[in-house]
Amino acid sequence: xxxxxxxxxxxxxxxxxxxxxxxxxxxxxxxxxxxxxxxxxxxxxxxxxxxxxxxxxxxxxxxxxxxxxxxxxxxxxxxxxxxxxxxxxxxxxxxxxxxxxxxxxxxxxxxxxxxxxxxxxxxxxxxxxxxxxxxxxxxxxxxxxxxxxxxxxxxxxxxxxxxxxxxxxxxxxxxxxxxxxxxxxxxxxxxxxxxxxxxxxxxxxxxxxxxx
Length: 212
Prior knowledge:
Elements: E1 2-7, H1 11-21, E2 27-33, H2 36-46, E3 50-53, H3 62-72, E4 77-82, H4 87-96, E5 100-103, H5 108-119, E6 124-125, H6 127-135, H7 150-160, H8 165-172, H9 176-190, H10 195-204
Parallel strand pairs: 1-2, 1-3, 3-4, 4-5, 5-6
Helix pairs in contact: 2-3, 7-8, 7-9, 7-10, 8-9
Domain Response regulatory: 3-119
Domain HTH luxR-type: 141-206
Pfam families: GerE, Response_reg
């Protein structure tokens, strides 16, 4: 069972998420937090696998709460679920340690698949969030990028779109095993820990185009 903690200051939103997630046989909602401070406390006490985190909440916002949760409990996955898709919200959330970023207009089935994707170690970014990140000014390209092979740059560009290993393999006409090898090499060369960090690195440094 995937243990989920819901953190949102709107009762209607929490009830709606609770109602739908309870219908999933592989998901258990272990608690509801009404603000960021409570989310941090409950994360430590309930040890959920995933926290569905609202962005704007009283007492402590979702970005601050995410940062504290990741500092205190690195193994807990945070999925932002919010109404804001602009770069000024997306980038700080990802830098705070959120593993995924979805908007509240997401279809319920897609939200469940996002939760399952994160549990598989994949990244899940709403297309609007990815687009907003890519619109910002690119940071200077570090020397590590020069270590990437042309194929690894292609894999990184596909990964940034939120594609699974299977989808990347299909797009590039290679095996999933080959994709896994490339992704492992990308993590090592860019000094990142997971797919979300790799995707964030790519958009911050203008690497969403494999030709760069």
